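*** Residues and shapes ***
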Amino acid sequence: MDPAINLRPYASPEQVDPLVRRMLARNPSPFTFTGTQSYIVGSRAEVAVIDPGPDEPEHIAALIDAIGDARVVAICCTHTHRDHSPAAAPLAALTGAPVIGCAPLTLADDGPRSDAAFDPAYRPDRVLTDGETISGDEWTLIAVATPGHTSNHLCFALPESGVLFTGDHVMGWSTSVVSPPDGDMTAYMASLQKLYERDDRVYFPAHGPAVDKPRQLVRGMIGHRRQRERQILRQIGEGRTRIGQMVPQMYKGVDERLWPAAGRSVHAHLIDLAQRGLVAQCGEDWSLAA
């Protein structure tokens, strides 16, 4: 991990690529690391903003200042967690730019996926599907559908630089939480494999430092998730049949504030394992499949 990331100033653009500037929002937490990183992509004439971040006046003002006289072609959101998309509407009002990117997340119930983590006010002008593009002066953004962390998650590729903006699908400091019922481990693993088969030069995530060996990291992430599967099967075999019993054993040394989120990922793994016929559920208890 880049030790300098903790020294980076808030509300100040960093030139991280000839076509990319990064802006850190002042919203650090156990779930966001040092904060959400917004990206201004393009030339001084035309730009796009990726993951405008939380609706914080300081951050929005800093983005406007960094954009300067450039025309904002699009405001792009990778997904609709509240640390990513709420600034889209005020930024659109100030610049006149359309909000283009992930689909709004329509929640069918009041379960875990409708908690405060989601932005119910997100209203895109255009929803991108896999492979669709946005273009400006000598740059192009290509949507790469990566469901799993959320069902509406997109990454954005910048082919002119070999950059992939990975949102929360691949982060530079931690693995993503996959929280059912919207989060889907089967989809998440398929999306990781999809990225592994690409040839991007560098990842710019929404949290944490840039990833300069992307395929190596993704291969490790896939291996880590397979290791979690084996841990879960071992926990069940040893008689820990409930998620609350598994998490303290599986996440020793991890900040206990993150255990509820870890439990959601364990649940996602269990659903995936059940779909593959490896475990079965009875109420809150899980067992190895006969």
Q: What stands out?
A: The chain has two domains: 3-212, 231-288.
